[in-house]
């Protein structure tokens, strides 16, 4: 009798233990389905170190800087036609609209850097040109040294198109307008479906380095068809087996583009329209939207890879901030808006951010890229540059103007980061003072670089918020 009782108690206890461990394993599996940890491929850094560095040290400072007048105003041409296909349809949703600034809303110092030239201005006499030059110098800032004033003028004429990794807007075009980024935030607009898919498909299928026979596992559903992509392709790892077979440069190109895509999707999930009534519009975190894009089970293992690529992109842009420090430290580099006290504070904060970026102990090693035989490396670098430049041109095909705005800004920011990484010799050989003709960043480049990194930094910060929200509902 005692034996039977003990046996019964053992069975009950064993069943409960098994149930407990099964339940715990299910919770752990759910937790791992949207979290990524450990070391990044092609890097010497782990994800936890990046999270801690960004969320505790860098994120608050970058947000403060981006709220300043110098960095909140971005000049962009949203009316350029798509260069690749004739479809000129635009999103009719109200959240796709962008409200440009009135001229009197832009600080005078920023306006003076982008004087518009009409056809008549191109045929004026040399005397008139000299007068215009003197007038422009006066408009820039009388407190600046003659050397710095001349640098500003030289920068407006500087043409470094052969070094650019992206297609930049002509700031002097009548269609180029200033936009207040704080009043036109990146968030969910409702722009989706075949038109949106066409953009990303063009980026991945036509501009990332891969053979035509390889199709990217883009989503579990093909756009607008409801046709499920074979799970076998995901589970077999066929796509990523091929990706690992690429050279480092081409693999890095794909991972950077994927990281940018991931960051944009996190922003849309974190600033989602949750409530839309006649008396209130509420934006916030949409957990369901986040899981559909990044949950390992829902995406057949694709989601965590996307998140890893976000951290990879973070390291690339963080390294660019560290590398550009000598250029920004020069007295000729100005963040001029006309408010001298604020301008001084902005530069001090920017230098603090760049020095912090330089202090990161496990930086991305840009020297590992294009390190082969010289001629072959140069050809690959040029191909790399032209591919990314083509992606920046695709941004003019985005039908949603707000999506186009942020797409153009973030591709220009990443393009500027790449330009910095591959201009090490030019930056090292900068003169101590005066204008630099070998390496130069326009104001638009600087604004795009910092805002683009700010978006990546925000994405990593938002991942922590989503983690806490998902843990709370489990």
Number of helices: 18
% residues in beta strands: under 5%
- What's the alpha carbon Rg, rounded to whole Å? 25 Å
Considering DSSP H and I runs of 4 or more, what fraction of the residues is helical? 55-70%
Secondary-structure element pattern, one letter each: HHHEHHHEHHHHEEHHHHHHHH
The mean pLDDT is: 79
Main sheet strand line-up: 1-2
Secondary structure: number of strands: 4
Return the structural class: mainly alpha
Distance, first to last CA: 43 Å
Structural description of this entry:
It is a single chain. The protein is mostly helical and 474 residues long. It is 57% helix and 4% strand. It has 18 helices and 4 strands. The strands form 2 sheets. The chain has a two-stranded antiparallel sheet with strand order 1-2. It has a two-stranded antiparallel ribbon with strand order 3-4. Helix 12 packs across helix 14 (340-358) and helix 12 (302-323) crosses helix 16. The longest helix has 31 residues, at 2-32. It is globular, with a radius of gyration of 25 Å. The two termini are 43 Å apart. Residues 1-32, 114-143, 152-161 and 218-236 have low confidence and may be disordered.
Quick take:
With 474 residues, this protein is mainly alpha-helical.
List keywords for this structure.
474 residues, mainly alpha, 18 helices, two-stranded antiparallel sheet, disordered N terminus
